[in-house]
Amino acid sequence: MPRPRFLPDNFTLGLLGSVLLASLLPCRGNAAQLLEWLTDVAIGLLFFLHGAKLSRQAVVAGITHWRLHLTVLAATFVLFPLLGVALRPLLSGLTTPELYLGLLYLCLLPSTVQSSIAFVSVADGNVPAAICSATASNLLGIALTPLLVGWLLLGGEVGRGAGSAMGIVYQLLLPFVAGQLLRPWLGRWVDRYKSKLKLVDQGSILLVVYTAFSAAVIGGLWQATPLPALGGLLLACALLLALALGLTRLASRQLGFDRADEITIVFCGSKKSLASGVPMAKVLFAGHAIGAIVLPLMLFHQLQLMVCALLAQRYRRRAGG
After folding, report:
1. Does the keyword Membrane apply (predicted)?
2. What Å distances lie between residue 256 and 75, 119, 261, 262, CA to CA?
3. Distance of alpha carbon 110 from alpha carbon 126, whole angstroms
4. 76 DSSP 8-state letter
5. Topology at the third CATH level for domain 44-313
6. Which CA distances in Å does 238 have to 62, 242, 293, 300?
7. Other C-beta atoms lying within 10 Å of the C-beta of residue 288
8. pLDDT recorded at residue 12
9. Which of 102, 219, 265, 308 has its CA 20 to 30 A from that of 271?
10. Which residue in 310, 65, 59 sits closest to 176, CA to CA?
């Protein structure tokens, strides 16, 4: 029986199913800890396989692609803050003052790492450059985000920490380096089963979506704000994401990047990190109720995963993947 044309692909159905399952049956307690551990293992395996399947020449080319890296960093730490400030009359009209503060906070955060790279891989983009750009964004965000928050939100100096940076090194960079070192022995096997190993990319995203959305639901995602304010917040997040996706795509084409680099710029330059944002909020806003600060980030995080999953599939189909 042929597949109905209106039916989304299996990955999109899995993504929607993960959100629905997390809303109805969020993981709690020991089950949540087990899934967090499985997610970490899947992400580490993902980066190990990326290291094993990428040639040394491709990695060097990704590291030295400085024009792309500057473009991604400009989108993350210049474009987003400008959008948050310039759109204040509109965004604050859609939400409450507390939620607008949270929207501005998410504009100051670094890009995601694992999901950005997984989406670039699914869309057949420049994976080595994505690894370098997303990692650099997250590492620089340890210093830049507190400075921007202190300047735009708190009006003074704020504390900072290096725990997130060490987590990036242990969970992402070390598996990637290990895969590179073992490539002479594993490279041919990885190339042979490349189509099957893409399930690691997609599976890691589904795990991230389910665990992140479960935590948001348990934390009172649907009860934290009245329905009208939640609807306005969703529109505000959708507007920010649409502008970021459109402007990064336009900039990449105006600057003469090829299709693979455009994919990397779009996915790495339009995302915001929930994994970095929530721990930072606990430190930066110590002594304050951070529920309204992180709620826009939680919604934006779910929205960016959903939209970017669809966009990655669209890029792949256009390339005939």
Report:
1. yes
2. 16, 22, 10, 9
3. 20
4. I
5. Na+/H+ antiporter like fold (1.20.1530)
6. 30, 6, 17, 8
7. 12
8. 66
9. 219
10. 59
Structure tokens at 283: 């430190």
At residue 4, the pLDDT reads 62
User: What residue type is 31 in one-letter code?
Assistant: A
Tens digits of per-residue pLDDT, 44-86? 787 787 777 766 666 666 667 789 999 999 999 999 999 999 9
State phi, psi for 220 to the nearest 5 degrees. 90, 35
Q: What is the chain's length? A: 321
Number of alpha carbons in the 13 Å side-chain half-sphere of residue 161: 13
CA–CA dist 102, 143 (Å, integer) = 19
Neighbours of 280 (CB within 10 A): 27
Crossing angle, helix 97-107 and helix 227-254, to 10 degrees? 30
Q: How confident is the model at residue 135 (pLDDT cuts 50, 70, 90)?
A: confident
Entry pTM: 0.71
Q: What is the pLDDT of residue 224?
A: 63
Amino acid at 165: A
CA–CA gap between residue 202 and residue 206 (Å, rounded): 6
Separation of alpha carbons 39 and 115, rounded Å: 12
Q: Does the pLDDT of residue 161 top 90, yes or no?
A: no
**Mean local confidence (pLDDT), 137-147:** 76
DSSP 82-95: HHHHHTHHHHHHHS
CB proximity list for 16: less than 8 A, separation 6 or greater: 8
Task: Give helix 227-254 / helix 291-318 axis angle, nearest 10°.
Answer: 40
Residue with structure tokens 């993947």?
321
142, two tokens? 């340890």
Asked if residues 303 and 237 have their Cβ atoms less than 8 Å apart, the reply is yes
Among 76-80, 106-110, 165-169, the minimum mean pLDDT is found in: 165-169
Long-range contacts of 285-288 (CB under 8 A, 24+ apart): 286/159
